[in-house]
Amino acid sequence: MDKLQAFIFDLDGVITDTAEYHYLAWKALADELGVSFSRELNEELKGISRMDSLDKILEFGQKGAEFTTEEKEKLAKKKNEHYVLLIKKISPSDILPGIEKLLTDIKSAGLSLALASASKNATMVLEALNLKQYFDVIVDVNTLKKGKPDPEIFLRAAELLNVQPENCIGVEDAIAGVDSIKDAGMFAVAIGPEHLFPRADIVYQTTNDLSYNDLIGKFLNR
Prior knowledge:
With 222 residues, the protein is of the alpha/beta class. Helices cover 43% and strands 10% of the residues. The chain has nine helices and six strands, in the order E-H-H-H-H-H-E-H-E-H-E-H-E-E-H.
């Protein structure tokens, strides 16, 4: 039987919900570019990188061929600057229900913790939430070649923690993220509607449903 060694968490939608701030920042940029941007399209950006998100928006607006790589990088930077301004209001009150207790239980059990988020602002957000001290590793997305759903980010987290992927539980709220966990050979926990996550090993409707003891039981009895 595999021994559980570590938990690897996504950030947005799992530890805190900054989706609204991403939506507002992307919408401001889309409006400037003359692209219609909806909350439905914003949902499709969950779990994927900033540049991939920009490409999706430009493709949706049929403007994919209008910008050079350098111009796209400037647009992505502009979106991020707006997002950073918006998230300055984040505080520990924005931690999603049940998460801090789960992190405390994981650390009390002597297990390792890593953050595998596509966000380049992950460290800043964790600090604002006063949760950074729980994490042994925060994967630097700037060092990665591929974004989710590629498993690279979760494999890198395991490597940095010096643990085997099969001894890890990954927690995500995006389909791309769950695919990333499964393709890394890890046990996948999804947050959200069950029908969206056919590949997940277990699905919880909300973060408040997460339980350390329940997760351990499901992992050991898979």
